[in-house]
Amino acid sequence: MIEQVVSVDMPVYEKIIIHKNRLAPKDYTGKEKRLSLVTGTHGDELDGQYVCYEVIRRINEHPEKLKGIVDVYPALNPLGIDTGYRGIPMFDLDMNRVFPGDNNGAMAEYVAAGVINDIIGSDLCLDIHSSNTFIKEAPQVRLNEECAEKLLPYAKMLNADFIWIYSSITVLEATLAYSLNNMSVPTLVIEMGVGMRITNSYCKQLIEGIFNLLIEMGIWEDNKPFVKEPIISTEGEVSFFHASESGIFVAAIENLGIVKKGEHIGDLLEPISGTILQMIESPFDGIIFTLRENPVVYKGALLARIIHDAR
To answer: Which part of the chain is the Succinylglutamate desuccinylase/Aspartoacylase catalytic domain (predicted)?
Structure first.
C-alpha cells in the first residue's frame, strides 16, 4: 500500500510529498518484524531506485512468502531525483545533513522529522546510497565503530564485498543513519556504484543480500541465497590515493575487485607535455573498492581506495 509520509506546501500550489510503499502479509497482526528500506536522499544516486523496484516486484510476485513488514521509501529527496540534483534544488542543501529534523523547522527540517518519525519502530533500516558522479564504489556496508557490535551481524548478511568500520571521529551527526541509530533503530549505510548511473550487477548483488537478511529476520520465507563472505576492515587497513597534481586520470583496470601487490591501477597524465605525473600501484594484496570515474582531476582529488585483504 502506497502511503503519504509527509507533505509540505510549495509556491504556486505545488507540494513536496514523501511516499512509502508498505508491504505487509495478508494476515497482518501488527506484531510482525519490520524492515525499512530507504534511498533517494541524494538526487544523483539512482541505484536505490532500481533496488526498490526489484524488491517490491519480487515480494508482489510471491506475497504468500511475506511474513513481516517491508516499508520502502524510494525518494526522500523527490525534487533532487526529478532534477538530477544531489541536494535539494533551490535550497542548495544536502538532505543528509538535516536529520533528525524539527517539526517546527524549515521545509527540509520538517520533512526530515516526518521521515524519522515514520521509520521509528522499525527492527532494522537500510540506508542505500550510490557514490557521486566522480568516483565509483564497490558494494559495501559502512558502520560507525560505536554501533559495530550490534550492526555487524546484519551487515554480514547483505552480500557486500566488504564492511568498512570507521572511526566515530569522522561521523556526521546530522545524517539519517546516525540519528536513527541514536534513537535505537539499527541502521546500516550501503554504498555502491556511481552517481547518475545504475550499475545492474551491484544492484542485483545487494538485492540478493536484502532477501537473505529478510529470511534471517523471519520477514521472508524462502530458501537462503548464496551470499559473499565480506572482508571486514577498519580505516587503518585502507589506503587512500589522491592526485599529486591537476591532470587527467586514466585507469589501468576495467573493474573494481581483487588486486595484487604492485598491480598497476592507473596514471595521472599531463596532456600538453605527454608526461605521467603520477603512477598508482597497489601497495598490497587487497580489493580496490573506489576508483575515479570522472577523468578530470584537481590536486588532492581522490583517485582510488584499496582495502587490505587479511583473510
So the answer is: 33-215
d(CA 126, CA 211): 12
User: pLDDT tens across 171-222, in order?
Assistant: 788 999 999 999 999 999 999 999 999 999 999 999 999 999 999 999 999 9
Q: Write down all domains in the chain, each with its CATH number in brackets.
A: 2-229 (3.40.630.10), 237-308 (2.40.50.100)
Question: What is the pTM (predicted TM-score) of this model?
Answer: 0.95
Beta strands 187-193 and 135-144, pairing class: antiparallel
Which residue intervals of 70-122 are DSSP H helices? 78-83, 107-119
Q: Is 30 exposed, middle or buried (0-12, 13-18, 19+ CB in 10 A)?
A: exposed
CA distances from 177 to 130, 140, 191, 265, 309 (A): 15, 15, 13, 32, 27
Cβ–Cβ under 8 Å, residues 214 and 206: no
